[in-house]
Amino acid sequence: MKISFFGGAGEVGRSCIMLSTKDTSVILDSGVKLGEKIEYPQISGDQLRSIDGIFLSHAHLDHVGFLPHIYSAGFKGNYFGTKPTVDVSNVMISDYIRLSNPTDVTKKGLQEQSRHAKIVEYHKEFRFRDLTVKFIPAGHIIGSSLIEVSDGRNRVVYTGDINLTKTRLLDGADVKGLRGDTLITESTYGARKDVFPPERNVTREMLASINDTIKRGGKVIVPSFAVGRAQEVLFLLDDYINSGVLQKVPIYVDGMINKVMRIYRHNVLSCRKEIQSKILMSDYDPFKSPNFKPVESKSQRNRVASEKEAAIIVTTSGMLTGGPVLFYLSKMAREQQNKMLIVGYQAIGTMGRALQDGAKAINLNGNELQVRMDINTFHLSAHADRPQLESLMGKVKGLRNVFIVHGELSKSRDLMEYASKKWNAKVPLIKESYDI
Predict the structure, then answer these.
(1) 246: which residues sit within 8 A by CB, 6+ positions away?
(2) CATH code of the domain made up of 199-377
C-alpha cells in the first residue's frame, strides 16, 4: 500500500491523503485551507481521475471543502461518511460556495456530489473493492470518525481530528481494541507544552470573565466554528445561566450556527445519552433553549451590535476569516467595555491569530480598525492534547509506522521526537509518498 499526502501535511488545513493499492485508490478527506486566500490540495488532474472513492472523517471545511471541486472535475464515484457528517457537509459546502464562489465548481459537479453520498454506520465493516473499511467514533464533532482501512496485509488507522475526553455533547473517541500497523494522526496540539488545563478551571475563569463584562454593561463576542465548538459553548452558557452562576443576558446566535444546531437536533442519537435523556425525560430541549436568540436578518444584527444592553454573541467564523463576526468586530472593537473570547484554534495568518497574539489594530475591509476591547483566550478544545496523542499511539496494537499530520510544522516535529523513540515516525510534507 502507498500513502500520498496532498494537503494537511506540515500544516493545518486542506487535509487530503491518498491510499493506493495495485487496484484501488481512495482519498481520506478532501479539505480546503481558509485564510487570506483559499488553498486547495496539491493533487493533479491525473491523480484526481485515479480516485475510486472518498472517505470523510468529519464535516469541517478543512476536511470536506474540496469535495465540490473534485466532482466538478469529473469524479463520479461515491464518498462515504456517517449521517451527521453528510448532513453537516452539505450545509457547510453550500455556505462555502456561496461566500467564495470558486470558478471551477459547476452546477453539474454539485449535483454529482449530492447523488453520490453513501451513509456508513460506526463499527460496521464494509468492503470497498479490495479494501475493508470501518468508521469509529472520534469524539471531535458530531459524526466524526477514525477511519480504519485494510488491504489484507496492511491496516491503516487515520484519526481525522480526534478527542479522547467526553464533552457536553459527545463521548470521547472509542479507541478500545484499535489495531493497525500504520497510524496517521493529527497533531494540532502536538507540542510538549500543549497540555490542557482541567476543564473546570477553564470554565470557572471564563464565566468570571463574562460576568465581569456583563457588570460593566459590555458585550461578549465568542467567535466560533459553526460545527462542534459553537454547540459546546452554547450548552455551557445555557447550563450556567440556568444554574444562576452566569448572569442572565440574551445569548445571540448568528451565522451558520443556527442551521447546524437544527442538524445536531435531528441527529441527537449521535450525542451523549445524557442529552438524549434530557430531551426524552423532561420538557427541556437544550437545542431550543429560551436563552438563545437567533439573529435572522441584517437589521437585527445591526440592532444587536448597537443596543446598549449587555449580551453574549456567539457567531461565525471561528478564526475571523469571514462571517458575521467581522461586522460585530467593526461595531464593537473600539469600546473598552466589550470583550472577545477566543475559544478555539487560531491558524497562523488569520485575524483571530493576530488578535490572540496581541494586535491592537487590524485591517478590516481595507480600513485600519483600532482594537480597544479585551481579547481573552480560554481553551475549549475538541482536539486531543499532547498527553492524549501519546496515549492514543500506545493504544494501537501492532503499530509500526506513525505519520504525523494536521499540525503546525513545529508541533508535528515535536510529536515526532516522542513517537520516534518507539515507532518509525515521520512528518510528511505535501506531495510526498511512502510505501508501507
Answers:
(1) 207, 210, 211, 237, 240
(2) 3.40.50.10890
